[in-house]
C-alpha cells in the first residue's frame, strides 16, 4: 500500500461538477492499493499517518501530528501510485489491485483511519474521474510504502 500525504491548508474533491469532500487544515492522502496488500498494511499505514509529526508547533518546528492539531483529512484512491515505468513510455499498472480487491481494502482503510483520528473524513469516489484541489502547506509532501516499513 502506497500513500502520498500532503499537508494542506485546504483541499477538496469534485466529481461530475459536484464537491464530494472539502477540508481546511489537515491532510490530503492519495492511496494506492496493490494485490499483495492486507489488513496489516492498513493498520500500520493508518496509524503511521495519523501520528506522523508534520505540522508545526509554536516554534515553527514540525513536531505535531494530525491528532495533535485536531486536523481534517481526505482520502482519495489512486491506482497510478503503483505505476511501473521500467520500459517504454507508457506506465504499466500491473501491480495495482483490481477493483474487486481494491475497493474493500480502500473502504477498510477509511474505516480504520476514521478510528485512528476519532472523526469523520472526506473521501473521493473510487474509480471516478476526480478533480482534486489543494493548497499544499509548506509544501510538505511525504511518500510512504507499507512494504518498506522494516
Give a written overview of the molecule.
There is one protein chain. By secondary structure, this protein is of the alpha/beta class. It is built from three helices and eight strands. It has helices spanning 39-51, 66-69, 99-117; strands spanning 2-15, 18-23, 26-32, 55-56, 62-64, 72-77, 122-123, 130-145. Strands 1, 2, 3, 6, 7 and 8 form a six-stranded mixed sheet that branches. It has a two-stranded antiparallel ribbon with strand order 4-5. Strand 4 and strand 5 (62-64) form a beta hairpin. Helix 1 packs parallel to helix 3 (99-117). The longest helix has 19 residues, at 99-117. The model has no long low-confidence stretch (mean pLDDT 96).
Give the domain tally: 1
Mean pLDDT across the residues is 96
CATH fold topology? D-tyrosyl-trna(Tyr) Deacylase, Chain: A
Low-confidence stretches: none
Which class do the helix and strand fractions yield? alpha/beta
Largest β sheet strand count, sense and barrel closure: 6 strands, mixed
CATH superfamily: D-tyrosyl-tRNA(Tyr) deacylase
Radius of gyration: 15 Å
Distance between the termini: 14 Å
Strand content: 35-45%
Subunit structure: Homodimer.
Motif (Gly-cisPro motif, important for rejection of L-amino acids): 138-139
GO molecular function: D-tyrosyl-tRNA(Tyr) deacylase activity; Gly-tRNA(Ala) deacylase activity; Ser(Gly)-tRNA(Ala) hydrolase activity; tRNA binding
Keywords: Cytoplasm, Hydrolase, RNA-binding, tRNA-binding
Amino acid at each position: 500500500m502506497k500513500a502520498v500525504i500532503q499537508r494542506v491548508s485546504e483541499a477538496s474533491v469534485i466529481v461530475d461538477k459536484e464537491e464530494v469532500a472539502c477540508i481546511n487544515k489537515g491532510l490530503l492522502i492519495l492511496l494506492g492499493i496493490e494485490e499483495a496488500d492486507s489488513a496489516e498494511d492498513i493498520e500500520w499505514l493508518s496509524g503511521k499517518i495519523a501520528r506522523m509529526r508534520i505540522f508545526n508547533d509554536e516554534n515553527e518546528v514540525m513536531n505535531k501530528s494530525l491528532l495533535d492539531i485536531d486536523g481534517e483529512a481526505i482520502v482519495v484512491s489512486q491506482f497510478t501510485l503503483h505505476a511501473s515505468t521500467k520500459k517504454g513510455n507508457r506506465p504499466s499498472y500491473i501491480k495495482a489491485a483490481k477493483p474487486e480487491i481494491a475497493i474493500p481494502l480502500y473502504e477498510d482503510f477509511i474505516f480504520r483511519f476514521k478510528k485512528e483520528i476519532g472523526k469523520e473524513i472526506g473521501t473521493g469516489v473510487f474509480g471516478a474521474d476526480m478533480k482534486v484541489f489543494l493548497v499544499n502547506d509548506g509544501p510538505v509532501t511525504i511518500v510512504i510504502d507499507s512494504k518498506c516499513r522494516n
